[in-house]
């Protein structure tokens, strides 16, 4: 049976959202905060769980690799993830089950396309916090095997255009591997949109009276991108991605969104924007591409 990418989610990873949920895995405790984004994730995860995927595949900017693309090669990783910028908010004890077969299959497709790859077989390797946050927020039960894909830094060493093409190539390899696997998979593009942080936070991090976008220009760019998603204009979105990355200091520069859209053969149907909100000045949106929602409409 041919495998299928059954949905894709733009799944931003501010550690503040996990902090505000107070899950047992995270040591710090919060009063509240960022409800619009957290409720958006709740709506999205209901749709994703209903699809009964065999695996979740995540691409995060916080597993940066300079040489090629790295994949996890062991079935189980357990450890403590600490956000280096917000260690007072995110100290998360993870216990992750990896779909090694699918991980190796994507790596194999990358190799066949001429890309350099590395398989991580160090049991003490610390998994990146961006991937863990997105995976927790979309599936806090952790009952679906996962695949992590590293973020090659071509955009930072060469140009936004080169980075976009590299991410697209990995997306095509991902699609080929999923189709050959016979599995139903959901892709998670773990990144914010505009990504300029405030340099100071309030004494109480979850005090929402301090929360707003960094500046109006970033907001205008975020709204332009979200409008294109809602209109099903993903090809046009990819065409302007290099400019968006530059003008909005966007976290999409690391390639996760391009990877996901290319793996899904660049959807031309409207995405579901579950919510948009700011976290310490950055623009974040939970957005779902789910063909079953369109077909059932």
Short précis:
This protein has 297 residues and is an alpha/beta fold. It has helices spanning 15-21, 35-50, 100-112, 129-138, 154-157, 160-181, 216-230, 234-247, 256-263, 291-295, and strands at residues 4-10, 55-65, 69-72, 76-82, 91-97, 117-120, 146-152, 184-189, 272-279, 282-289.
Structure description:
38% of the residues lie in helices and 23% in strands. The protein contains ten helices and ten strands. Strands 7-2-8-1-10-9 form a six-stranded mixed β-sheet, with helices on both faces. Strand 4 and strand 5 form a beta hairpin. It is globular, with a radius of gyration of 18 Å. It starts with a strand and ends with a helix. 50% of the residues are buried.
Write out key terms for the chains shown.
single chain; 297 residues; alpha/beta; two-stranded parallel sheet; 10 helices; 10 strands
Q: What is the CA–CA distance across the termini?
A: 26 Å
Q: Strand order, main sheet: write it out.
A: 7-2-8-1-10-9
Q: Could you estimate the helical fraction of the residues in percent?
A: 25-40%
User: SSE string, helix = H, strand = E?
Assistant: EHHEEEEHEHEHHEHHHEEH
Largest sheet: 6 strands, mixed
Envelope shape? globular
Question: What Rg do the Cα atoms give?
Answer: 18 Å
Low-confidence sequence ranges: none
DSSP helical segment count: 10
Q: Mean pLDDT, as a whole number?
A: 96
Hey, roughly how much beta strand do the residues contain?
15-25%
Number of strand segments: 10
User: Structural class of the helices, strands and pairings?
Assistant: alpha/beta
